[in-house]
Amino acid sequence: MTKFLIRILVLSISLLYPILNAQIKKIGVPFITNYNPKTYKAASENWDVLQDSKGMMFFANHFGIMQFDGVRWNIVTQPQNKSMVRSLAIDKNDKIYVGAQGEFGYVVQLANGQYKYSSLLKLLSASDQNFGDVLYTVVLHDEVVFFSNEKIFIYKNNKIKVIKSDSNFDEVFHVTSDIYVLDNVKGLLKLKNDVLIPVENGQKFAGMKIRKAFKTKEGLLILTQKNGLFTFKNNQLQPFVTKVDNLLKQSQITTGILLSDGYIGIGTRQSGLIVIDSTGNLIQHINKQMGLQNDYVTNLKMDVAGNLWVTLKEGISLIQISSPLSKILDASNAETKIYCSQIYQNKLYIATDNGVFWLDWEAYKNGQHENVHFQHISGMSENVWNVGIFGNSLLAFEKNGIYEIKGNSAQLLAKTDGAWQGILIPNHPDLLLVGGYNGLYLLKKINNSWVYQHKIKGFQESSRIIVTDKANNIWIAHGYKGIYKINFNATFDAVSKIEFFNQADGFPSSLFLNTFKINNKILFGTTKGVYKQDPHSKKMIQDRIFKKYLGTENHIRLLKPDNKNNIWYISGENTGKIVETENHNFAVEELPFRKLRYLYIPGFENIQTTANGDVFFGTQDGLIHYNTTKTKKYQTKYKAVISEVKCIFPKDSLLFSSRYDVLPYNTSSANNALSPVLSYSNNALHFSFASLCYDEADATKYEYWLEGFEPKWSDWNLQTEKEYTNLPENEYIFHVRAKNIYDVESEEAVFKFEILPPWYRTIWAYILYLILFGVLLYTIIKYQKNLAERDREQLILSQEKELLRNRAELNEQKLALEQENMAIMRENLETTINLKNAKVASNTVNLIHLNEILLSIKELIGQIDKKNDFNTNFDLLKKINRIIDHELQGDQHWNEFEEIFNQLHDNFMQRLKTSFPELTPRDMRLCAYLRMNFNTKEIAPLLGISVRGVEDTRYRIRKKLQLSSEANITEFILNF
Predict the structure, then answer these.
(1) More confident residue, 845 or 344
(2) Residue 9: predicted pLDDT
(3) CA separation, residue 731 to residues 677, 679, 756, 760 (Å)
């Protein structure tokens, strides 16, 4: 019982809150988001709308019940007979009751996200099942009323009571806790205890075509289709006269809704939405020209955030009536890019790419939108950068020069090479300094008119932003160079002094610098916060107060004070104002202006404030108005939702989805859908998610986290889908939460699921693996044991074979060694024998030759005759001596020796002669004898010289061989 009361209280507060905070602005047109049939991909006609306790939106569409989660549109179910859905209602348990063509029933959401439709026609008799459209469905306490023109069906305790009409019903009205029914003949009836009771004087309502009724302080307020509005109080029916009676009667009222402070929203067939106050004054008229998608309004409903949903004959529109921001539009709605705005003599002027336009501001803010239009100021048709009030004059600064606006035309004051803006010179209210594309210009007020004087000499830079300080210095910001501080001479015709400041003087960058005057102080906007000039060092330093409230990381694009000491700013993409509190601290207000992100014209951001509290923002999407007295609750709670979960393989295998007829329904799958158990082949999942916050839904950011796979939440981003592939077996929880443009975080949505391991990692697989491992281990041990036995036997056999082989190799090596030794001995013997044979042969040759010589000498001696005289004998002796000398000096026998010697000593003589060609034959002989290891005494007789002569010859040979004194010539010859 306690839970039931708490739920009723929460539901009542949620329904009451938007009504109390949904007062629509009178100035401007609220922001409108249109959804056309191409967007939601269903029929163009929509007849009803509701919101469940989570915040999900549902629409009665020609194709069925359509759901919108802020990102995606889906037809979630259809009536049993597939007919058009005409009406919707919802109870405290989120059961949706549906009225269709010849059909009604209810819809519940299953655990797998699907919506199941159940028809209630089975509770009717066959005769009662014949009826047309169920135009209205109302949930009242513990019963549901389905209304058609032919019959009223009251569903309670699983039974249906049928109320019939003899002449058909026309309409049903749910007013607070009462239900009124309009009968075409009987008039107004009241449903009480399941019986229709006539209202006193109710027959007056017969044939009035009532389309809506509200309970107000003035009694029952009745909206008729063609006859306007009436009040019914004390059984008296009286017309409720409004300022728009003719418009209401001509437009044909279709529906209505009660807003806060007695405001009434009226939907029409031909003129869109009309909003009036409790006294009948027009507050808003939003039609197709003002941004509504279609003029045929079928229904109006508020959501929990204070937005007004408008279902149309073609499409759906969301009107953000709770926002303090609105667009200044008229029927023409031609100019959108606004560089400057100004209110002058109760007229609102805007500077655009096509000149200056104006409208009657007093008439416009009083609600006279139908007859108030922007009018073009003739004389200017190109870019107008600024419009300013100087004295009693309104001046415009245009691409071609300086103009004065008078009435509906502009008069050229000075043709210059472009004019950005103007500023009065301090202490000289009659002098106007104008910043141009290529320098500065001076105008002077003469006879109450501004007259061009001259261009100021000495300064040729673009001067789009100019401010003055209390010391009469002129500060000029050049967006791509830096800041100039200049002074003029006494006649204001030339610059007397210029100081220049850029990054070298303390600025974080020389680019995108700006200058502002706040509370008589010169401040500078940079890409890293607000700076000021240090009076002592003259360097640029960060301003302490603005550093605290605006930080040091944002590009300060604009600072502007208003008449209430508030400071308006544009910092990065955020717009806000700094308000001084009672304890002289400051508070920053940004949330109401989050809609302005990315709307400004880069470099031409402008904010205009008025003494009446009006604030204008010039954007590339038109002029936007802010009402400082209207408040909106920005901390409204909302939910994130998981729209769809599907397995990627097999393709698009859905696990959770609200899309119509995509999941087969069965009890087990419905109950387990929020924590499905998936096979390993389904380990790739795709998640779609959204947030049930419909204010600037495209700017909502999301973060997500797959618990069990990821260590932490993702970064905030704009994507509304996330995909995971190759997930290992585990239990997972997918978390997602949203953050809207007001930085309010949603309640998170979760989806639990489990991925089973593949069959080869299941418990049965592991048991099988264990058994197989045991068998394998036994087999391996058995095999290893047999293998070890075979290896042991093989090893023994191998060792025996190795031993025999080693013995054989040893014997072979021994035999080979013996053979080698014998070969060496044989070779040595052969060498010795050859040498001895050579010596014997040489000696034999020498001996034979010697014998021949001796025989010759003997013959000569024999010829010596004692009888011969001395001279003859002397001649014979001389002849003998010559023979001996000839033999000692001859080479015949030496050549024979040399041939034999070279054969024995590897051509020693030839090699020696080739290497040392300066050696004589005697030198060669001596070298040969040295090669034969003869000593000096043995060599002397062979050469026929003395021992001393041999030593001398050895010395000469040493020099020819280029041997040092320490080298042994015998060793050299032996090793050569």
Answers:
(1) 344
(2) 37
(3) 9, 12, 9, 18
